[in-house]
Amino acid sequence: MSAPAPGHPALRGLRAAGDGFVRLLAALLGTLAYLKARPKRRPAPRLGFAGAWEGVALALLAIGLVASAMVLVDPLIPGLRPRLNREFVAFADRLTDLGLGTVILWPIGLALLYVLALQPRLDAMGRRVAASLVARLGFLFASIATIGLSVAIVKHLLGRARPQAAFFLPGPNAQLTFDWLVWKSSFASFPSGHATTVFATAVAFAALYPRARGWLLALAVVVASTRVVLGSHYPSDVIAGAAIGAAFVLGMVKVFAARRVVFAVGADGRVRPMAGPSARRLGQVLFPKAPGAPDGASGGAPLEEAR
């Protein structure tokens, strides 16, 4: 079979995807470099904890829950899926995709690329609005992508057998089988990448939209639980992934807040999201008025609807 011609649509698509990935990676590294160079300010941000010792106590609590689940609950999981209702399993199979990094990160990444490409054509006010949006998208992308990629590597290095693989392993404690550096999908159970990603996403959006915190965390719990229903992970994997994802994003909130990017810090150290541009202003910037269009119209939805 001959290779496609240089101008073949498939090659153009691959080249465009590669360019997009490189730009996303550059945007991620640029965000981290910007944060490193930006000076910290006082007072230091505080996220509900009185100090470092409370954070250590929470970390020990999470470790205790993971260890307890490994010993007491995980042995009950191998072979669970065939005993569950088919419709319930099918629903869980559809819902679990909400925890995929690609499902979450590609829309954020493409939105980030779109705003970055739009910036040079904007006026001074438009660039300020775009910069505000880029900062928020950068926070989401850096927080979710960094921990998601890290956990994807770590779980393959640890090599814990997934429940469906452990079901066929000999011994009374097959759920504790770790095959380091095996680098197989069937031995990449701990921690759960889906749980890490979905909890990182929920906490990151909850930091930006505190009023939706309860709904976001409830959805994260449901999506993470589907990993156990489907037999892809143990409860301990999900608990560990949820704790890691949430803790990392909270740390990123403190990093951004300490530099007064995206988040503001009150006199008592409490962190709150900065006020962003209105929906009307975003509509004007993201969907510029087409040439010859009447006043009040934009390339996208009418501005009255954008309110």
Automatic annotation (TrEMBL):
A GO term from the CC aspect: plasma membrane
| Membrane topology of this protein | Multi-pass membrane protein
Say yes or no: keyword Cell membrane present.
yes
Which InterPro entries does the entry mention? Answer: PAP2/HPO, PAP2/HPO_sf
Protein name according to UniProt? Phosphatase PAP2 family protein
Q: Which organism is it from?
A: Xanthobacter tagetidis
Q: Which GO terms describe its molecular function?
A: hydrolase activity
Alphabetical list of Gene3D superfamilies matching this protein = Phosphatidic acid phosphatase type 2/haloperoxidase
Q: Which UniProt keywords apply?
A: Cell membrane, Hydrolase, Membrane, Transmembrane, Transmembrane helix
Q: What does the UniProt entry say about where the protein is found?
A: Cell membrane
Q: Does the keyword Coiled coil apply?
A: no
Lineage, top-rank taxon, reads Bacteria
Predominant location category: membrane
Q: Where is the Phosphatidic acid phosphatase type 2/haloperoxidase domain?
A: 137-253
Q: Which residues cross the membrane?
A: 20-37, 58-78, 98-117, 129-154, 187-208, 215-232, 238-257
